[in-house]
Design goal:
- With 287 residues, the chain is mainly alpha-helical.
- The protein is 75% helix and 0% strand.
- It has twelve helices and no strands.
- The chain has helices at residues 3-24, 29-51, 62-85, 88-95, 98-109, 116-133, 144-167, 173-195, 213-234, 239-245, 249-261, 266-285.
């Protein structure tokens, strides 16, 4: 992996847990998520106009945009349902295992050839991610429906990544970002209203109308984080390798949790972080 792509992906990984934590700490997290999506539409649209990108260029890749939007909605619906039904430590690592699925799809259907060393690095990253998040004594097969939603979330984010990696070869990342969230935003509102439970009402999804500034900050972090990933794809980053290195966001999340929440099992988490970091080094060394 080229050093400029590595820097983009690691910077994205560092920003990702920050905006996630800000949404989770919001009094109305579903509303914060919707507000963040609104900010992304505004930022991507402004970025495209200022940079002189043609927003209508998206018509060249409508099929990829349709795949991205569908995959993102599947991921969001599956993740929300999974988190409400099951133990986070058992099922979230599965949802985050997209590099394995991406590598399999790329090799079987897209003609991508991986060296044995690259596959070893991806496997090390996934194993480290599992080790970081998994809690002893929790059995995934005890709840097969939740396991199904975790697998759907994994497939959703993997398909989204593959489509994005191809789309940025044709259209500017900010243009893709703009149209993706134009079409997914109504879906997010419907999903949260339908599956959010009694504590989520239609009105609770719009706190950003009363006080937009906190959501502007979340939106800036989120936009930069995801834009860096799209730029990594546009500069030739291989999608499975990029998503594997992107797992560096997990140790950053663990660090935040340890600092803010004084979480336990730090020995296990340090070992998992070292394994994940070693896997990233292996991927970076593969040319």
């Amino acid at each position: 992996m080229e050093i400029n792509i590595l820097i983009m992906v690691l910077a994205s990984a560092a920003l990702h847990p920050l905006w996630n934590a800000m949404i989770k700490r919001d009094a109305e997290p579903e509303g914060a998520f919707v507000g963040n999506a609104v900010m992304l539409v505004i930022f991507a649209g402004a970025h495209s106009v200022i940079a002189g990108h043609d927003l209508l260029a998206i018509t060249q890749i409508w099929h990829l945009l349709a795949i991205t939007v569908t995959a993102k909605l599947i991921y969001t619906a599956s993740l929300v349902t999974m988190l409400r039904r099951g133990d986070l430590s058992a099922y979230y690592p599965i949802a985050r295992s997209s590099p394995a699925f991406i590598a399999a799809v790329s090799a079987l259907f897209l003609g991508v050839l991986y060296s044995p060393l690259a596959l070893v690095g991806i496997a090390m990253v996934i194993a480290g991610a599992f080790w970081l998040q998994y809690k002893r004594g929790v059995r995934m097969l005890d709840n097969p429906v939740t396991l199904m939603f975790a697998l759907l979330a994994m497939v959703g984010t993997a398909v989204n990544s593959i489509a994005d990696a191809r789309a940025v070869q044709v259209v500017a990342p900010s243009v893709i970002f703009f149209w993706t969230f134009v079409f997914t935003l109504p879906g997010f509102v419907l999903l949260f209203t339908a599956f959010g439970g009694k504590q989520v009402s239609f009105a609770s999804l719009f706190p950003w109308l009363r006080s937009p500034w906190p959501y502007v900050k979340i939106g800036v972090l989120c936009y930069v984080s995801y834009l860096l990933i799209l730029l990594a794809y546009a500069n030739g980053g291989e999608v499975a390798a990029v998503n594997a290195v992107r797992q560096a966001s997990i140790p950053f999340s663990v660090l935040l949790g340890g600092m803010w929440l004084k979480e336990a099992d730090m020995g296990q988490r340090i070992c998992g972080s070292l394994l994940l970091a070693a896997g990233i080094v292996v991927i970076v060394l593969v040319r």
